[in-house]
Amino acid sequence: MSGKRCNSDEDTMNGESSKRKKSIRIWVDGCFDMVHFGHANALRQAKQMGDYLVVGVHSDEEIMKHKGPPVFSQEERYKMVRAIKWVNEVVENAPYVTTLETFDTYNCDFCVHGDDITTTSDGTDTYHLVKAAERYKECKRTVGISTTDLVGRMLLVTKSHHERDETKGPNKNDLKEVGLSQDGRSPYTGTKQLVPTTKRIAQFSEGHEPKPNDKIVYVAGAFDLFHVGHLEFLEKASQYGDYLIVGIHSDPVVNRYKGSNYPIMNLHERVLSVLTNKYVSEVIIGAPYTVTMQMINDFKIDAVCHGMTPILPDVDGSDPYEIPKEIGIFHRIDSSNDLTSDMIVQRIIRNKFLFEERNKKRKQRRCT
What we know:
Blueprint: H1 2-19, E1 25-30, H2 37-47, E2 52-57, H3 60-66, H4 74-82, E3 89-92, H5 100-105, E4 110-114, H6 128-132, E5 136-139, H7 147-156, H8 172-177, H9 198-204, E6 216-221, H10 228-238, E7 243-248, H11 251-258, H12 267-275, E8 282-285, H13 293-298, E9 303-306, H14 322-326, E10 330-332, H15 341-350, H16 352-367
Parallel strand pairs: 1-2, 1-4, 2-3, 4-5, 6-7, 6-9, 7-8, 9-10
């Protein structure tokens, strides 16, 4: 009798203990400049280590002091990180050196960072304090993507990232100018071209089907260098229904209507970037430029939305939105944000010299 009662009491205590189990709160911090799927993948991995993810984002002033001018303003970066689907909370103006006081303030158990080195302007490890306290964990860095690599593509104005012919790669001397080796690898990040896998797409995708009564919204575009303009457009488009499908055009299609070396990011990279967004339910990879009736019926689309940018005709001269317009499901959306991929490239070009100097300094620190 006593044995059974003891087991019962123990079971009750274990049950109560599990109910009271403390939620594990994780801290991740960074610049998150030109937020890409590599940043998002680090946040995804960090979230898997606990229950609640707090992300600290450094201010423009802090980044300027330790790294050089950011491409995006702090307000843009705060907004971008908040829209990543694994993030629970964003802390603005987070300190560049991670401290235990920060953990206490936000009730975080430990921090997570990629398996690369982050230092202050004087070469100090920004995580030395939390490492000493054994409250630091690492996640795997995403191979094949970095802010430096993307900036390099913009400055070099090449198409090697979306052309199959490797003989048309960047000039060796040009690569040296922006701190990259001839094979496209950064000497201090080790970045090489992303190898597409279905596993990575599955990790980023929610994989849920629309409910029977859900209103389905469709948008399409390049979504190159995924930025706050895209984000605000998707947020408004999502308000037209319950389930947002994003069609992403192939590299040749984007290059046809954008020209130059666009898209800066190849199709797979753009797909992963869009999948990180909390407003997106599904992605169509290599979506057709023209929205057909068959497509509308197959995906049960109730609304088709487009931003305020000009709608260019398809190769045959037809309006790609002719059918959605005819059946009354087409909507133009003014996101009140005029930022474009072209404008981002112009920001990079304006800071070209500062970017090159920053790369040289970072390379020197990595090699010492």
